[in-house]
């Protein structure tokens, strides 16, 4: 093949190659469409939870910057916060430190008709608390022995318990940390604990490996979510959650709005000066 034909062939192959930008747009469009469909199903789940009195607990654990917050946002952004409650507890107070460890978590468990999502949970003990030395090695070991029994009691009491662990590799976590550093609206996401988790990757790896191995039970299994691709992780995890709950679509009773009342003949508009937000847009 002469040089001219080789050049023509190379140019033809280049022209036929898919445009990365167009492929990205198509994938994003497919993601948005599937997410919208799943959020309709989450709304259907909400109606069923209210009607049936179901109690659901969803735990999200995982690597720092693995996308737990984004996952929870996509689950909850189209439903009522009175049904889907997100629990993200701060560091315990001195009083809470004197309580039984599980005490401050148990008070957040759902009543009938509620879904509680833990953005990190009682698994702080064998995770960050253990690695950072906020608890003793003995207390961590005892927790890992006892928590499967407590979770069994929760399930036996009728609570639907789901545990998801979001994971990313070292390179992706570092990329996301740098993105937080460079983006002013994301800098709040980078806490001192996040920085330590970056430095102590392998300490956390060993702690998480043991945690999952000892608390992955038939009644409360761990489900690992590959979150190197955030959008794929959201679709995969939400799809799995919905497929794991035997909910049914509840018929929506369309309300009869009736007619508005007529303005009373004796109504006089209030002329008291009021403060209005300036229109800047």
What can you tell me about this protein's structure?
With 281 residues, the chain is of the alpha/beta class. The protein is 50% helix and 11% strand. It has helices spanning 3-16, 20-52, 68-76, 94-97, 103-106, 125-131, 137-156, 170-182, 192-199, 201-215, 230-243, and strands at 55-62, 84-87, 114-119, 159-167, 222-226. Strands 2-3-1-4-5 form a five-stranded parallel β-sheet, sandwiched between helices. The mean pLDDT is 94.
Q: Give the N-to-C terminal Cα separation.
A: 63 Å
The first-level CATH class is given as Alpha Beta
**Structure class:** alpha/beta
Largest beta sheet, briefly? 5 strands, parallel
CATH superfamily: P-loop containing nucleotide triphosphate hydrolases
Low-confidence stretches: none
Rg, Cα atoms, Å: 25 Å
DSSP E strands, number: 5
Helix percent reads 40-55%
What are the secondary-structure elements, in order, as H or E?
HHEHEHHEHHEHHHEH
Summed up, the helix count is: 11
Fraction of residues in β-strands: 5-15%
CATH topology: Rossmann fold
Q: What is the molecular shape?
A: globular
Domain tally: 1
Mean residue pLDDT? 94
CATH architecture classification name: 3-Layer(aba) Sandwich
How are the strands of the largest sheet arranged? 2-3-1-4-5
